[in-house]
Specification:
It is a single chain. The chain is of the alpha+beta class. The chain folds into two domains: about 40-165, no CATH class; about 170-325, Immunoglobulin-like. The chain is built from six helices and 20 strands. The protein has helices at about 1-25, 75-90, 155-160, 165, 235-250, 310-325, and strands at about 45-50, 55-60, 65-70, 75, 90-95, 115-120, 120-130, 140-145, 150-155, 170-175, 180-185, 190-200, 225-230, 235, 250, 255, 270-275, 280-285, 295-300, 305. The protein has a nine-stranded antiparallel beta sheet, covered by helices on one side. It has a nine-stranded antiparallel beta sheet with strand order 14-13-12-11-17-18-19-20-16. Strands 10-15 form a two-stranded antiparallel sheet. The protein starts with a helix and ends with a helix.
Length: about 325
């Protein structure tokens, strides 16, 4: 009899515990996650990023071109795209906290980053970004008007944790190398002018350089570019191509706001490129450390900027030996 009573009590205890687990209102199983409205990245026209140390304003100029306001500087497209992705596709996977203990998630006033995005005059997205979760697959966020902390898909704090200078497009020279026909280089006291010519490729050396068909293919003879100085000397085409490749997508390390070219003294090297368009780059000696960056200016940018040592050494390599060994 005693065993039967104990069995009944045990069954009742298990049933009660099961009911408790099913019916209790826990944070893990009984809450509804907000579902942010879908936003198309293409429709976003303005973004504001409020950081503890200031606010960055971005406006779409046209297409994929974004400007940092109020200065109007061109923004780095890839960095803007990194912002648009979580703005457009904000997905929540779990509620993390209702306690409003924001500091542990870097969502306190001195750490959080608040993001606002507009489509025209309509505010279509607003949320605050905290730190990345330990899994590195989620980011802690809060939504406007909602005090709870959520997990959002993706590791994206770094995309918004940037100043206006960080977001600025660092490309200071851009062109197609094949479009350049003439290069003028002034290195200290030496001036070198290179002109591009088209030479018939060795396999078609017997063919005329015009539209004479190739014996092998029946098509016009193939040509290859040859660079010659105005004195008639040929230069290593591979070296010139390296120079053009370096310049064709030249990135600076930072812009020098409120500085003028006259602040930097006598230029170290000036390179002028002529073709379908003309471009000019001037590099000045380092201002302090022997290992520091070089001040420079470009015909395509308003502000001076710093170029890293590696970039400048690549520019000097082709002409340094001639400058030192054959001064004019």
């Amino acid at each position: 009899m005693k065993i039967k009573v104990e069995t009944v009590v045990l069954v009742l205890v298990i049933a009660a515990l099961g009911a408790y687990l099913v019916l209790r209102n826990t944070d893990r199983t009984h809450y509804s996650l907000p579902e942010p409205d879908a936003v198309s990245a293409a429709q976003v026209t303005r973004i504001e990023i409020h950081r503890p140390d200031g606010t960055v304003h971005l406006e779409r100029a046209e297409g994929d071109l974004w400007r940092i306001q109020p200065a109007g500087h061109k923004a780095d497209k890839n960095k803007v795209d990194d912002m648009l992705e979580p703005i457009a596709d904000l997905k929540l996977t779990a509620m993390v906290s209702e306690s409003e203990a924001y500091n542990r998630y870097d969502l306190g006033k001195d750490r959080k980053i608040t993001v606002k995005a507009w489509a025209g005059d309509e505010l279509v997205r607003e949320f605050s970004v905290g730190k990345v979760a330990p899994s590195y697959k989620h980011t802690f966020i809060t939504l406007a008007g909602d005090p709870r902390v959520y997990h959002a898909v993706g590791s994206f704090r770094h995309a918004f944790d940037q100043t206006a200078e960080d977001l600025r497009d660092k490309n200071v020279l851009s062109f197609e190398p094949k479009d350049i026909r003439k290069i003028t280089v002034r290195l200290r006291d030496t001036s070198t002018v290179l002109v591009r010519e088209e030479k018939v490729a060795a396999a078609d050396a017997g063919a005329a350089a015009d539209e004479t068909p190739s014996p092998k293919t029946g098509s016009p003879a193939e040509t290859r570019p040859v660079w010659k100085s105005t004195e008639g000397k040929s230069l290593d085409a591979a070296a010139v191509n390296r120079l053009l490749t370096t310049l064709s997508d030249l990135q600076c390390s930072e812009y020098l706001i409120d500085r003028n070219p006259s602040d930097f003294g006598t230029p170290l090297i000036t390179i002028r490129l002529e073709g379908t368009q003309s471009y000019e780059l001037t590099v000045f000696p380092r201002e302090s450390s022997e290992e520091g960056p070089y001040p420079a200016v470009s015909s395509t940018m308003e502000d001076p900027f710093h170029l890293g040592t590696f970039s400048v050494e690549n520019l000097l390599e082709l002409f340094q030996e001639k400058s030192e060994g054959d001064p004019q």
